[in-house]
Design the sequence.
C-alpha cells in the first residue's frame, strides 16, 4: 500500500546521523545517500519498497512539521523498540513517549515515540506478544 514516506529535514548531516542510528536498530538498510541533493533512503533488506526517505523539501522552503502527523516504523521485537528509542535520544531526539505497552491500541502493542531535531514525530512499534 505504501511506496515511500518522505520526511523533510533542515540539516542533512544531523538528520542523516540521527536516522542512520535509528534505522540500524531496526535492521533497515541504506538504499541511497546523496548529500549534494540532499537526501537519503532506507528499506528492509531484500525489499524494493517501501522506502523511508529524508531530504530537503522539493520547493526549497524550510521543512516544517504537520500537526497530527506521525510516521510509525515497524520493529521486529520489543527490544528493537527500546534500542531505537535509545538511539534516537542519544542522537538528538526528544522523547514523546517512553517504550512500553499501549493496551489502548491492542494487548500486544509495544511502542515508543520521539521527535527528530526538526520536530518530526516518529513512532517505533512491535505488534507481537512478548517472547
Sequence:
Amino acid at each position: 500500500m505504501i511506496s515511500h514516506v518522505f520526511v523533510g529535514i533542515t540539516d542533512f548531516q544531523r538528520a542523516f546521523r540521527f536516522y542512520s542510528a535509528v534505522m540500524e536498530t531496526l535492521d533497515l538498510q541504506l538504499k541511497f545517500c546523496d548529500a549534494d541533493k540532499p537526501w537519503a533512503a532506507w528499506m528492509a533488506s531484500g525489499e524494493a519498497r517501501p522506502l523511508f526517505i529524508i531530504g530537503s523539501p522539493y520547493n526549497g522552503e524550510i521543512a516544517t512539521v504537520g500537526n497530527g502527523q506521525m510516521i510509525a516504523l515497524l520493529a521486529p521485537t520489543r527490544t528493537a523498540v527500546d534500542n531505537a528509542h535509545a538511539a534516537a535520544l542519544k542522537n538528538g531526539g526528544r522523547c514523546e513517549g517512553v517504550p512500553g505497552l499501549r493496551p489502548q491500541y491492542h494487548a500486544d502493542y509495544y511502542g515508543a515515540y520521539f521527535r527528530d531535531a526538526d520536530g518530526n514525530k516518529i513512532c517505533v512499534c512491535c505488534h507481537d506478544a512478548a517472547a
In short: The first helix runs from residue 12 to 25. Residues 4-57+69-126 form a domain with the 2,3-Dihydroxybiphenyl 1,2-Dioxygenase; domain 1 fold (CATH 3.10.180.10). The chain has one domain: 4-57+69-126. The chain has a mean pLDDT of 96.
